[in-house]
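Aim 2 progress update. The chain analyzed this quarter is reproduced below.
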Amino acid sequence: MKAWPAPAKLNLFLHIVGRRADGYHLLQTVFRFIDYGDSLYFAVRDDGVVALENPLPGVSPEQDLTARAARLLQQAAGVKQGVTIRIEKRLPMGGGLGGGSSDAATTLVALNHLWQAGLTRRQLETLGLQLGADVPIFVHGHAAFAEGVGEAFTDVELPEAWYLVLVPPVGVPTPAIFGAADLRRDTPAMRPQDWRPGMGHNDMEPVAARLHPEVQAHLDMLGAYGTPRMSGSGACVFAEFMAEAAAQAALAALPSGVRGFVARGLTTHPLAALS
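Predicted structure tokens:
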């Protein structure tokens, strides 16, 4: 059975520039994919049932984002077929790498193809936003400067880079970050065309580091290699390198027991060309 990739994303910066009347935070960020992530497998079935071959521990089938994505596409496109989904999970939950969102997006893109549902990428992005704010970028398929709640994209071209990503032994619940009183919500907005690689910071990082000292400890480990950043609302942190060898050497130098991996930065999603 064919493996469908669901890559991780990194937020190269993440600013909170305001808040809507409904409470949603207004963000600016640059999303970049990396060549490390989950793998999904789909077996189309004729009975209309959406089934999970290996449900994620602690996640009910009704709440699983891949199952929800499949049912949402069924409903939106009037599809009568079903599917059995199997996930090979590599990305940590609560890590800020977009694992669940990426899985949901790959489900939408793959099943739109396998079911011949006929929806456009833009229609799939709109569906994805119903599942979560990070789902549309994975459907969009190109590195982008994102605005709004994270769904308005301006594509960016990024230089070749490698990343050392560390996975602290803690999951950071996003609602706890957004609900924190000391979260900065007034970073001045910038124009997409004014952003350059290396600009910006992550407004959520100080809050996550305060709530979870493990996050700060892992940021400190990367401090010797430039300016480390946290991705999303955490907990994963990363440093950028120009060469794979340098990133691998930094990984090898980490204290025993520290979990991490090296990945290449991507400008386009592996499924970007799929119609």
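The first strand starts at residue 4 and ends at 19. The chain has a mean pLDDT of 95. These observations will guide the mutagenesis experiments scheduled for the next reporting period.
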